[in-house]
Amino acid sequence: MSRNVTLSLKRNWKTTWQTPSLRILMLIGCFIAAILISVLPIFFQNIEKRPGIQLNDRILSHTPAYNVSIYLFLIIWSMALLTLVRAVYKPEIFIKYLWLYSAICITRMITITLIPLAPPANLMNLVDPLTGVFYGHANITKDLFYSGHVSTLLAMYYCLHKKSDKRFALLGAVVVGVLVLVQHVHYTIDVLAAPLFVFVLNKLLTALLFPSTRQ
């Protein structure tokens, strides 16, 4: 990394930190994220202990189950790396993603609690050691309504600035939506509901906290 780039990064983060509104959003966002990281493993382990309703999903019933974990997480972590790189250069991307992803986690906890679902038939377990920290390194199958995998990529779509990056994130969300159905880890309604939830959350957060980033 050249000296000019390093200086530019320092200047961007210094400017962000010296802006009271952004500094407060960053600190509160990090605090909320830290709490969620602590609570989520316990939450997911608890939901596995309760009974749930297995939906009659016609699309899944006509879709053979295959283990596509490697492709699924290759897409997710590639986009996560791209988003991280962009966020290093533009702190506002980091701050907005922090808030949007936290909002997604909170609303998913609410919907999962209110709508207890059993895993789809012929489910094939996803294996990803990197996200094990959020699940307490346990095999979680009932975090169903709505899809966290699709929501994660849609959050990146709304936070990234470059059109090419946004296209990659949106394409990734579509492909991941198909892959989680192929692996039978989500119902069709989980995948279809994710864009609606993330759209509404992004609109609310943009209006309330990030009016300068309206798209």
Explain how this protein is built.
The chain has 215 residues and is mostly helical. The chain has one domain (3-213). 70% of the residues lie in helices and 0% in strands. It contains 9 helices and no strands. The protein has helices spanning 3-18, 20-47, 58-61, 69-89, 91-114, 132-135, 148-159, 163-182, 188-208.
Write the layout of secondary structure elements.
Blueprint: H1 3-18, H2 20-47, H3 58-61, H4 69-89, H5 91-114, H6 132-135, H7 148-159, H8 163-182, H9 188-208
Helix pairs in contact: 2-5, 4-5, 4-7, 4-8, 5-7, 5-9, 7-8, 7-9
Domain Sphingomyelin synthase-like: 143-200
Keywords: Membrane, Transmembrane, Transmembrane helix
InterPro entries: Sphingomyelin_synth-like_dom (IPR025749)
- End-to-end Cα distance, whole Å, is 31 Å
Q: How many domains make up the 3D coordinates?
A: 1
Q: Beta-strand level of the residues, as a percent range?
A: under 5%
Q: Main β-sheet, in a few words?
A: none
Structural class category: mainly alpha
Gyration radius, to the nearest Å? 18 Å
- What is the number of strand segments? 0
Low-pLDDT parts are: none
